[in-house]
Amino acid sequence: MSSSTPASSSTAWTTESAVVTQAPSPSPWRRTWWRFRQQRLGYWSLIIFGALFVISLFGELLANDRPLVVRYEGHYYFPIVKDYSELVFGGDFPARANYLDPYIRSRLESKGNFAIYPPNHYHYDTIDYFAAHPFPAPPSATNWLGTDQFGRDVLSRLLYGFRLSVLMALALTVSGVLLGVLTGAVQGFYGGRTDLIGQRLIEIWSSMPDLYLLIIFASIFEPTLWLLFILLSMFGWLVLSDYVRAEFLRNRSLDYVKAARTMGLTNWQIMWRHVLPNSLTPVITFLPFRMSAAILSLTSLDFLGLGVPPPTPSLGELLQEGKNNLDAWWISISAFSALVITLLLLTFMGDALRNALDTRMRGSAFGGGK
Prior knowledge:
It holds the Pfam family OppC_N. It is built from 15 helices and three strands.
C-alpha cells in the first residue's frame, strides 16, 4: 500500500498541474480575428487600405501650396495654420501671400531665411499661374501626375478625393448599419403583424428607382455634402435589414431567449443584450461591401455632375475631366486606377471577413482552418 501511494499522488499532482497550466480557451472574436489573418489577401488589403486612409487624413501636411514653417528675418511663421499677407514677406500687396510666386519664393530663400514645404507643393484647388506648360500638363517633376484642364494638380486632387470618398462611405455605412439593424431587429423579433407591415413598407420603398430619385433631387437642390449624405442614406440600409431580420427570426425561438424571458427581461433587453450579439455576422460582413457601394454611388453622381459642388475634389469629377479631355490620358488613368484599387481592397476585405465568420469553420481548432 505504501509503495502505491507516492505513484498515485504523483499522478494526481501531474493531472492537477496540467489542469492549472492549461491555457484558457480564446474568445470567439479572437478566433475570428485569427481566421481573418489567415486570409492573406484580405488581411493585407486591410493594412494597405488603412495606411492609405491614414495618409489621406494628413493631406494638408503632404499636399499644400503653403509652407509648413517659414523663418523670415529672424521670425518664425506657420502658413499651414494661418494666413499672412505679402507685406509680411516683402511683397507689394496686402492680399494673402502666394507662395508659388517666384518673387515671394526668392524672398523666403534669401540669406538667413528658409521655408519648409510639403512634399507636394499644391493644394487640391491650387492653380499655378506661373506654370511653364499650358493646361492640362502631362506628369513632370513638378506635378507628379500632371495637371487637369484648370491647372490643378492631379495627385493632390486624388489624395483629397480619396479621403472625401472614404469618409463619406464610412458615414453612409454607419447610418446604414443603424437603420438596417433597427428595422430588421424589430421585424424579426416581434414577427407577426409587425413583420408583415414592415416588409410591405420596405418592399414599396425598395421598388422606387433610387438612382432616378437621386438625380431628380440633386438637380432640384443645390448639391452639398449633407444633401448627398441624406439622399444616399435613404436606400443604403435595405439589404442589411433583410439579413438582420432573418437572423432575429431564427434566434428568437432558441432556448437562451426563452430563458431570458423567464428571468423577467424586457423585449428590448433581450433584443440588444442577447439576440443582437448572436446576429452580428451579417452586419460585420456587410461593412466593406456597403463602403464599396457608397464610394461607387458617390463617384457615379460626381461623374454625372450631380455630386459634390466644385471645386471639391472627388474621383468622379476627375473621371469626368478625363472624359472631357481624352488627350490628357494621365487624368483618366490616375482616377480610374485609384477607384479600382480602392474597390478591390474593400472587396478582398469583405471576402476575408465572410470566410472568417463562416460557421463551418468555427469547429476547427484555434490555429487550424483557413
